[in-house]
Design goal:
The protein is α+β, with helices and mostly antiparallel strands. The chain is about 45% helix and about 10% strand. The protein is built from 15 helices and ten strands. The radius of gyration is 32 Å and the shape is elongated. The N and C termini lie far apart (about 90 Å).
Length: about 425
């Protein structure tokens, strides 16, 4: 709408149903905006800066009269005519103050923490990394972080025995946070943009179980199951003697608790721990003997389907029998009715009982892939089963194809 913005004209205006903007017919760029419901009146000036970009300068509202607003608009236009950009200077001053006062902790807690919990699958790990591994920087001004400071931090970590790959992962988390700070306007530039990662082995040694270790692991699982059942039986005898309600007998169950089925499924599907504990009954197709792992629970972010071999299928069948009436929306692996989060303690005790060292839960995934490759499975099929987005990650298992390698080398004979 266009009109001469005067005191008399403004006094006749009523509260609109939607935001109303009125452009003055006498002073170019001078405008009045009236808010719906509240009827609040705010004066603005639209102009083009030296880069010919449209700018909108807020003059003000409240008790400001039309004459005062018009005079201020003329002053701003005078500055523009001199080559100045009042709006740009205003923003720069505000941003500079914000940037200079922003600390590592303030940005992490007030801005970044909520974002990673909404968008990152491993939000808790990222937050733990930033607060624990970079704790010496928590009170630093965000803009004060420099490559030199980070280099000193990295040297101390390496001298403390931390592996280059771990240090690189930590730095990736930090750089990702700073990139968001730049994107959201909290930093003028990325202070660590050119900071290079350490060189690391692109084809590290794959850890998987030998036949003897696998046999020991299975035996330890069976022994653990029997011990849990005996403990429950003994506990019920104690309860019965004292007229206390008995706990369910575990000898009628296929599994005493969560650990054995989780280990067996991981060994036979290569599923990551995070994806495994996120499985719901609706993800298992018992008819077609296949399970689906949802993209939001996967590192790759993509949904993929994995057929179940005989042992994995039987494990799921037994779990279903133990569960009784199942709700398809419920998680398969739970603890006291809640989604299972940590199995670290029971897993480490199991490894100790099986006399297995230097073996992580994630190595069960490597065990799955390695056994397939050793038995002649094509690498691209293994890639598909692991849910890798490309063949690069799967190539780490290529050296386990001895027959093909020996055939090629024998061409020289």
């Amino acid at each position: 709408m266009k009109a001469k913005i005067s005191t008399r004209f403004v006094s006749t205006l009523k509260t609109p149903d939607k935001p109303l903007e009125i452009y003055d017919t006498e002073l170019k760029g001078f405008m009045l905006r009236i808010q719906p419901i509240t009827g609040q009146k705010i004066y603005y000036l639209r102009y083009r800066n030296q880069e010919n970009k449209q700018q909108r300068f807020r003059i003000g509202g409240g008790s400001l009269s039309v004459m005062q607003a018009r005079c201020m608009a003329k002053q701003v236009l005078g500055e523009v005519a001199k080559g100045l950009d009042p709006q740009g200077d205003k923003k720069n001053n505000l941003n500079q103050q914000k940037i200079e006062s922003l600390t590592f902790t303030k940005f992490l807690e007030e801005e970044y923490k909520s974002w990673i919990h909404m968008h990152a699958k491993s939000a808790s790990k990222i937050y733990h990394c930033l607060t624990k591994n970079f704790k010496e920087f928590l009170n630093y001004k965000l803009i004060a972080l420099t490559p030199y400071e980070l280099e000193k931090w990295r040297t101390r970590r390496l001298e403390g025995g931390v592996k280059p790959a771990t240090v690189n992962r930590d730095i990736t988390s930090l750089k990702a946070m700073l990139a968001r700070a730049v994107e959201w306007g909290f930093l003028p530039h990325h202070p660590l943009e050119k900071f290079k990662k350490l060189k690391e082995d692109k084809s590290p040694k794959i850890r998987f179980l030998s036949d003897e270790e696998e046999a020991n692991l299975r035996a330890a699982l069976d022994e653990r199951e029997e011990n849990i059942r005996k403990e429950r039986l003994s506990g019920n005898e104690w309860r019965a003697y004292r007229n206390i309600a008995l706990m369910p007998c575990l000898y009628s169950k296929n599994f005493a608790d969560y650990l054995k089925p989780m280990v067996l499924i991981s060994m036979n599907t290569g599923l990551r721990r995070g994806s495994l504990v996120s499985l719901k009954w609706s993800d298992i197709n018992f008819k077609n003997k296949v399970f689906t792992t949802d993209g939001e629970n996967n590192k790759s972010g993509s949904t993929y389907h994995v057929p179940l071999n005989k042992e994995a299928y039987e494990v799921f069948q037994k779990l279903k029998e133990d569960a009784g009436d199942i709700n398809l929306d419920n998680y398969i692996f739970t603890y006291k009715g809640q989604k299972l989060n940590s199995i670290k303690t029971s897993w480490l005790r199991l490894l100790k009982k099986a006399y297995i060292s230097n073996f992580r839960w994630h190595d069960l995934r490597h065990h799955f892939a390695s056994k397939l490759v050793i038995k002649g499975a094509p690498l691209n099929t293994v890639r598909d089963l692991l849910g890798h987005s490309n063949i690069t990650m799967t190539l780490r298992y290529a050296h386990l194809c001895p027959s093909e390698r020996e055939r090629v080398v024998s061409l020289l004979d």
